[in-house]
Every structure is written in structure tokens, then in C-alpha cells.
Design goal:
Elements lengths: L1 E10 L3 E4 L20 H12 L3 E4 L6 H16 L8 E6 L17 H8 L8 E6 L4 H14 L5 E9 L16 E11 L4 E9 L8 E4 L12 E4 L1 H23 L6 E6 L4 H13 L14 H4 L6 H10 L13 E8 L3 E8 L1
Parallel strand pairs: 4-5, 4-6, 11-12
Antiparallel strand pairs: 1-7, 2-3, 6-7, 8-13, 9-10, 12-13
Length: 352
């Protein structure tokens, strides 16, 4: 028995926000003083570092559970399964449903429960729960689904990664330009086909790193202090990722028994173009090799950083032929890798 992705789906929000749309913002330092550079300079430097030209936001009438449901529908159709046969629905997110203009998240009932309801699944044995694991949440959901199947507790699982980060950003913080919205979903099944999940690796670093990403007040000191926004220590995250993610990727690949020359694609969390490039460079350096051309497809330039949604949407876009010069064929080996709040790191070696 092997465990494979038998279907995928994604939802790319309709609202496009370019870097130019931030030129009218008032950016501040964390102490509330005006940021010294002009917004045009900020936007230019931001693009040079992150690679992001534009990102997608959900329309006002949609929430995270809504777009997760839309991606799930597509994954179910792609896998050609009856949703009543699902044993688990695992929904990876970080902030729940936050309505446009709201100051409170909505997690009751869980987002996975909402998706099961919207799918009109009657089967009570289909267990639905949420995964709060930072940006690596979808990857960890796949690892858990695989474990359930290996343990004989499941045969078929739906794993969703969706986020609406546009609802929890501080518009006075330059880091708000990084974040975006999106949803991706996959069906994970036991199969007799060759390949599937060959190895996985997960780690959580909290001793010094727990609060590298956190909820904090707006840089605008006149804002309500009880309203919190996503905040991060960017430099610390960058250094942490470069030190730890390549090692986790190597440990996972070595455990799989696959030679690095067999890796066709690395689908890494779309956090920051320069950081991702540096991670992959260091990964290959551990094997004393240079990075093969085209090994790391990137969607961050046009979709931004949608947290748990970046990897499943990237996978879906490639397999559906929606990314120029990027393909995946049966038998190809993929290395999934992610890093995010917690601080969590994980990786999967997967054979198509």
C-alpha cells in the first residue's frame, strides 16, 4: 500500500492588489514615528527582496472557510470520489474566519466542520478538525493524513490549506505587503500505485524562536490597542530558515533513500523569493552540488504569501498546466518544504 495525492484543487482570489496600491499608505516604524523613505522607494526595495509584484485578496463576501470549501470541491471532482467516503477533513489555517471590517476571529464551529457542512456530507464517521501549525500547516496535514492511513484509521482524507491574511494585517506596517489570500486542497488516499509519500520530517523550535511571528498592536498608536495584527521579526525568521530548513530537507531526502539527482521539483513555501532561493542553494550545497535550473517553481511574484495555501495552490497550478514552463509527470520526485510560525519546519519527499 502506498499513499498518494489523487486529486487537487485551488481557489485564487479575484481581487488583485499591486505594489502600486500601497503608495497611498502611511507606513510607520514600530514606535509610531513616520518611516523615513518615500513609498515609491519602499515598494521598489520590497520587490527586490521578496520578488512580489502583486498579490490576491478575497472579495468582501468571502471568508477563509468559503474559499477552502471552493478548493475542496475542485479536489474532490479531480479525484473523482464520493465525499461521503472521506474519513478525515483536515483544514490548515491560522486565523479562522475574519469578516471584512471585523475585529474578532470566528472559530466556532471549526472551519473543517463548516467545509463538511457545505459539502453536505452526512457520514458522521468523517472526522473534521482544524490544524493550527503556521505556514507549514498544509504539509503537516498531509503528514497526519498519511499517518492515519498507515495506522488503518483511514483510507481517504481531504487536506485543505486556506488563509485570508488580508483581514489581519496592519496597513501601517511594511510587512503587510507580503501577505495574501488563497486556498488549496488535496485528496490523500491509500493506493496500490507505485510512489506516493516516501518520507517526512517535522520539527518545532520554541526555546528562543516561539515569538518570531506573533499578534501585536498596530504601528499607528492612535488605533485601538485591543485590536491585534500579524507581526514578525523578519531578520530573525530569515536567519532561522536559512540555518534550519536546508538541514530538515536533507534529513527527509536521506530518509527516503532517493538520490538528490532524482529530485524533479522543490515546492517550497512561498514566503520570500530571496529567502527561498537561499534555502534551496544551501540545501544543494549540503550535497556539494549546484542548484539545477528550474528546480524551484515560484508563484509568489503574482500571488504573494498566502501562508498554508502557497504549496497546495502551487502544486495544483503545476499539475493543471497553469504555470509556464513547469510540468510534473508520473514518476517525478517532489520535495515539499515549509517553515513558519511556531517556529515549525517540515518536509515531504513525494513520488508522483
Amino acid at each position: 500500500m502506498n499513499i498518494k495525492i489523487t486529486g487537487s484543487g485551488s481557489y485564487i482570489p479575484t481581487e488583485t492588489v499591486t505594489n502600486f496600491d500601497f503608495l497611498k499608505h502611511t507606513f510607520l516604524n514600530d514606535d509610531g514615528t513616520p518611516f523615513p523613505l518615500a513609498n515609491e522607494v519602499i515598494a521598489e526595495k520590497f520587490h527586490d527582496i521578496t520578488g512580489i509584484r502583486e498579490r490576491r485578496y478575497v472579495s468582501d463576501d468571502l471568508s477563509t472557510s468559503d474559499i477552502g470549501f471552493l478548493a475542496a470541491q475542485k479536489a474532490i471532482e479531480d479525484a473523482q470520489i464520493d465525499p461521503e467516503t472521506l474519513d478525515y477533513i483536515i483544514f490548515a489555517h491560522n486565523f479562522g474566519d475574519v469578516k471584512k471590517g471585523a475585529i474578532q476571529t470566528d472559530l466556532l464551529p471549526s472551519l473543517a466542520t463548516r467545509v463538511k457542512h457545505h459539502l453536505r456530507i452526512k457520514n458522521p464517521k468523517c472526522v473534521a478538525y482544524d490544524m493550527l501549525f503556521g505556514c507549514p500547516g498544509w504539509v503537516e496535514g498531509v503528514i497526519q493524513a498519511s499517518a492515519f492511513i498507515k495506522a488503518g484509521m483511514a483510507k481517504k482524507c481531504l487536506v485543505i490549506g486556506a488563509e485570508s491574511l488580508s483581514r489581519v494585517v496592519d496597513i501601517h506596517d511594511r510587512d503587510s505587503m507580503i501577505y495574501s489570500d488563497g486556498a488549496g486542497a488535496t485528496i490523500i488516499e491509500a493506493t496500490d500505485e507505485e510512489g506516493g509519500i516516501l518520507a517526512n520530517e517535522t520539527a518545532t523550535y520554541t526555546y528562543d524562536e516561539a515569538y518570531y511571528l506573533f499578534f501585536g498592536n498596530s504601528f499607528n498608536k492612535s488605533n485601538d490597542p485591543d485590536i491585534r495584527y500579524i507581526k514578525m521579526h523578519g531578520r530573525k525568521i530569515y536567519e532561522f530558515a536559512l540555518s534550519n530548513v536546508p538541514k530538515a530537507m536533507k534529513e527527509c531526502l536521506d530518509k527516503s533513500g532517493i538520490d538528490i539527482s532524482q529530485v524533479k521539483k522543490i515546492l517550497i513555501h512561498q514566503a520570500n523569493e530571496k529567502m527561498d532561493e537561499a534555502i534551496v542553494h544551501r540545501f544543494y550545497k549540503l550535497y556539494h552540488q549546484s542548484v539545477p535550473e528550474g528546480i524551484m517553481p515560484m508563484s509568489i511574484q503574482s500571488l504573494g504569501n498566502s501562508s498554508v495555501a502557497t504549496i497546495p495552490t502551487l502544486y495544483d497550478m503545476i499539475t493543471k498546466g497553469k504555470m509556464e514552463n513547469q510540468t510534473l509527470e508520473k514518476g517525478d520526485v517532489i520535495l515539499f518544504a515549509s517553515v513558519g510560525s511556531g517556529m515549525n519546519i517540515n518536509a515531504i519527499v513525494y513520488k508522483m
